[in-house]
Amino acid sequence: MALLDIIVAPDPRLKKKAVSVESVDKATAKLMADMLDTMYEAPGVGLAAPQVGVLKRIIVVDPAQEDEKPRPLKMANPEIFWSSEEVKEYEEGCLSLPEEYEPVQRPDRIKVRYLDEKNQPQELEADGILAVVIQHEMDHLDGVLFVDHISSLKRGMILRRLTKIKKLSKAQKPKATLKRRSLASA
Ligand code: NI
């Protein structure tokens, strides 16, 4: 098990577009496992490779609540090929935007295809929190953060707050104080 460092916004590395993986080889599968460990440790419900400094189209998610059995998903090259017209609003958070939560609207249901950790093509229909987390993580692959979906006024406030915290805590590393493992951090 290896824990990876999560990049906190604002950071130019979070604004870049990630590239597809050719195939899910051993190194990719190891990265997926490390990302999942890092996500559980944070704790969060999703993590995208660009958040740990790897510009590849890889995400891991687990929407299970603390009292539920884990149901992790590891996805390479995820692609949404259908989404519902019906949208829903959830309060989102992000491990790269610690302690910040804002409501975001997204399609309520999606169908996604991807390569799993064994390089097998898979299709999945998702709704509710799972659909939200997958869409949130896939945004990271295109350099999009959840704050890019809210008003520029709110986004500016959040990014200024995070910049200030980064400056203040150069000496003492910020520690995530997230207690709840809700949609919180992805
Ligand atoms: Ni995120």
Characterization of the model:
It contains 3 helices and 7 strands; from the N terminus they run αβββββββαα. It is of the alpha+beta class and 186 residues long. The chain has one domain: Peptide Deformylase, CATH 3.90.45. A 5-stranded antiparallel beta sheet has the order 1-2-3-6-7. A two-stranded antiparallel ribbon has the order 4-5. The longest helix has 17 residues. About 3% of the residues have low confidence. The protein binds nickel (II) ion. Nickel (II) ion binds next to helix 2. The site of nickel (II) ion has 6 residues, from helix 2.
What keyword list fits this structure?
186 residues, alpha+beta, Peptide Deformylase, five-stranded antiparallel β-sheet, two-stranded antiparallel sheet, 3 helices, 7 strands, 27% strand, globular, binds nickel (II) ion
Task: Tell me the CATH topology.
Answer: Peptide Deformylase
Q: CATH first level: which class?
A: Alpha Beta
Helix proportion of residues, in percent? 25-40%
Classification by helices and strands: alpha+beta
CATH H level, superfamily name: Peptide deformylase
